Amino acid sequence: MSDDLAGDSLDERYGLAEVRDLDEYAEALARLAEQGMGDERATLLSEAEAYAVAELLGRFALSEPWSALNQLAASLASRIYNRLGA
């Protein structure tokens, strides 16, 4: 059953439904990223997909490096690159 049909959206499940601005959004995503670091479940992306995501996040981060959201993108890109051994 999909999340929408079950009445539980992903935004609600992960605490994003209540954010008021981009700074709160970046903080909530950073908390999720920290929480996800300890999650040892099965890999969700192939190596090629992970590399593509890291590249996109890295390029996004360069557009406004002082922005909290872009700093989070840079951090996530770095984590992905590290896991890929790049």
From TrEMBL:
It comes from Amycolatopsis roodepoortensis. This is Uncharacterized protein.
